[in-house]
Design brief:
four-stranded antiparallel β-sheet; 11 strands; seven-stranded mixed β-sheet; mainly beta
């Protein structure tokens, strides 16, 4: 299974971006999905999570500005980001717990990240 993020880029403060995380592979299903970010010189931090049923949780820093969603039919998760701030700059990673039918087990996967830069 592979997770591929897209949608990052350079945006001015106050702008918006929509990140996508698409999963591909054989005989799998996605459970919980999370978006993380890592700013330069800082540790990776949790931004938002969404369960299979669509229950979302957010870091305090992004509440009210970011929305996580998913399309289970497309095996894709999204992170809609509004009112972006320079502090939101970083590499955004998708994380998912994936059930692999061939193993009969949950395996954690990470994407390679997509860079978001917010200019002031």
């Amino acid at each position: 299974v592979q997770l591929v993020e897209s949608g990052g880029g350079l945006v001015q403060a106050g702008g918006s971006l929509r990140l996508s995380c698409a999963a591909s592979g054989d005989s799998f299903s996605i459970n919980d999905v999370g978006w993380y970010r890592q700013a330069p010189g800082k540790q990776r931090e949790l931004v938002a999570t969404i369960t299979t049923r669509g229950t979302a949780n957010y870091a305090d820093a992004v509440k009210g500005r970011f929305t996580i969603s998913r399309d289970n039919a497309k095996n894709t998760a999204y992170l809609q980001m509004y009112s972006l701030e320079p502090e939101d700059t970083g590499v955004y990673y998708c994380n998912a717990d994936v059930f692999l039918s061939r193993l009969g087990a949950l395996v954690e996967y990470w994407g390679e990240g997509t860079r978001v830069t917010v200019s002031s």
